[in-house]
């Protein structure tokens, strides 16, 4: 058992337990922070198998961007920060399915690659860049286009549509379809004048 | 290093992700479980890519390039997924994924 094996086993134990804590934690923010540990252990695995550029990409993209995005999602959806029941009624069946899947995959992997040794070959960012910008140039550009399109789509999906159509506060007939508690409060309260009635010109 | 260690680690992460997707209520936590499954697939790509580079002489580094693509697609997926979750929260005031059953037969 070489030193790389020992380090890999340690990374697997840390990452596996962090991933288990992600799916079992009762506090959603703690789950997001355990996700950081799990993704960092994956970056450590990449370093161990010699994919240096991918390891730092993993740290930058997943730990830096995706986890921050997920924390923003938790904040914007006003998820209950405190501990609460987080699992649905089929958790037992899900546990059965995932344990069976893990057993199946482990049996297949051990049967197929039981005694194989991965030679440690170091791949630098330069090596990856030389093939990425020459042989893989067209898929790389397609990927950039795809990323642009999907992020524009995400912005269009998530933005609040205020500029489209008449303002619900000014047109009460069109405001019935959309729940706007501020508009009904303002129209029913006698002391508050609505902005449309305020200045009769 | 033995090949099976990172592969079993990836299988463990994938199974944990499957459990999270099937059992969690909060849609953001389901997205986090999907991310765990994606990085498990990425580990497989990198390990088999290194194995192919050592055994078959793959000079194009296909495994690592595909892993890079999966990382980029995963980032895009989180963006679109969180946008959908925010839209669901705005329209239905819940992020419980069991409540989103409008298209359930």
Identify the overall geometry of chain B. elongated
Point out poorly predicted stretches of chain A: 183-201
**Structure annotation, total helices of chain B:** 3
Q: Termini of chain A, distance in Å?
A: 87 Å
Beta content of chain B comes to under 5%
Poorly predicted runs of 5 or more residues of chain B: none
User: What's the alpha carbon Rg of chain B, rounded to whole Å?
Assistant: 17 Å
Q: What is the number of E strands of chain A?
A: 0
How would you summarize the topology of this molecule?
The complex is a heterodimer of chains A (201) and B (105).
Chain A: H1 3-24, H2 28-48, H3 52-76, H4 91-113, H5 125-132, H6 137-158, H7 181-188, H8 195-198
Chain B: H1 4-23, H2 27-55, H3 62-92
Task: Describe what you observe in this structure.
The complex is a heterodimer of chains A (201) and B (105). Chain A is mostly helical. Chain A contains eight helices and no strands. Chain A has helices spanning 3-24, 28-48, 52-76, 91-113, 125-132, 137-158, 181-188, 195-198. In chain A, helix 1 (3-24) runs antiparallel to helix 2 (28-48) and helix 2 (28-48) runs antiparallel to helix 3 (52-76). Residues 183-201 of chain A have low confidence and may be disordered. Chain B has 105 residues and is mainly α. Chain B starts with a helix and ends in a 13-residue tail after the last helix. The model of chain B has no long low-confidence stretch (mean pLDDT 91). At the A-B interface, helix 1, helix 2, helix 3, helix 4 and helix 5 of A face helix 1, helix 2 and helix 3 of B.
């Amino acid at each position: 058992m070489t030193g790389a094996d020992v380090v890999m086993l340690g990374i697997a134990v840390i990452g596996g337990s962090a991933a288990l804590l992600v799916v079992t934690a009762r506090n959603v923010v703690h789950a997001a922070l355990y996700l950081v540990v799990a993704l960092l252990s994956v970056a450590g695995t990449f370093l161990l198998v010699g994919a240096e550029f991918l390891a730092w990409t993993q740290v930058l993209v997943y730990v830096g961007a995706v986890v921050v995005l997920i924390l923003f999602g938790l904040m914007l959806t006003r998820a209950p920060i405190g501990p609460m029941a987080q699992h649905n009624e089929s958790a037992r069946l899900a546990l059965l399915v995932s344990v069976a899947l893990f057993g199946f995959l482990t049996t297949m992997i051990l049967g197929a690659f039981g005694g194989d040794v991965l030679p440690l070959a170091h791949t630098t960012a330069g090596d990856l860049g030389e093939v990425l910008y020459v042989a893989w140039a067209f898929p790389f550009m397609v990927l950039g286009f795809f990323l642009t399109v999907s992020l524009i789509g995400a912005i269009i999906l998530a933005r609040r549509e205020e500029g489209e159509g008449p303002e619900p506060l000014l047109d009460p007939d069109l405001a019935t379809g959309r729940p706007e508690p501020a508009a009904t409060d303002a129209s029913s309260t006698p002391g508050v004048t609505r902005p449309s009635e305020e200045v009769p010109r | 290093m033995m090949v099976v260690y990172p592969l079993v680690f990836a299988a463990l992460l994938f199974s944990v992700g499957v459990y999270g997707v099937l059992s969690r209520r909060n849609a953001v936590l389901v997205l986090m479980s999907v991310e765990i499954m994606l990085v498990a697939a990425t580990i497989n790509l990198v390990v088999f890519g290194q194995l192919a580079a050592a055994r078959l002489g793959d000079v194009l580094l296909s495994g690592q390039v595909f892993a890079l693509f999966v990382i980029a697609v995963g980032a895009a997926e989180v963006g679109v997924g969180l946008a959908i979750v925010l839209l669901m929260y705005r329209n239905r005031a819940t992020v419980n994924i069991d409540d989103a059953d409008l298209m359930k037969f």
